[in-house]
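task queued by scheduler; priority normal; single chain, no ligands, no partner chains; default sampling; output format set to structure tokens
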Amino acid sequence: MRTLKLIFLLIPLISLGACEQQSTSNQSDSGRVAYETNIHDKEFGNYIIHINALTTDQLPTEVARGYKIARSKSRALLNISVIEKTDNTKTPITASFNVIAKNLSSQQKNVSLREIKEDDPLAIYYIGELPVSNEETITFELDVTPAGATETLLLSYSQQFFTE
């Protein structure tokens, strides 16, 4: 399982280096904080929200199998983690989410996130899958409430997928 965790931790690097995918971002009219192009980490006070998305065919076979993810160019994986900064430490924490995924035609896509917790070292991720088409841009509008927080963080992340 340690190998699976190590490979899964590399998913952000896979998406950054993938020449068949692009991140795009615009400031949202809804007051959401939008991620800039190719930026996957954003700080919100004492929290860092890491988000990325990639087609599941980019996952190594053993990682996809280990996390029960179907590998396909026409399926995307949304990956989110929340880190709390306290003093000089950064600790992964749990959070609750509301995710709305829409393409440029405002068609909504269902994304159900599931929590993945790993030990040694501690890692907490939330992943969800959704269907995508070639050259489709999906905007993920997220409401993120870190465990113990009183405020919900509103953010937006866009990703264009190339499936051919």
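post-processing summary
- Helices lie at 2-9, 11-17, 61-66.
- The chain has three helices and twelve strands.
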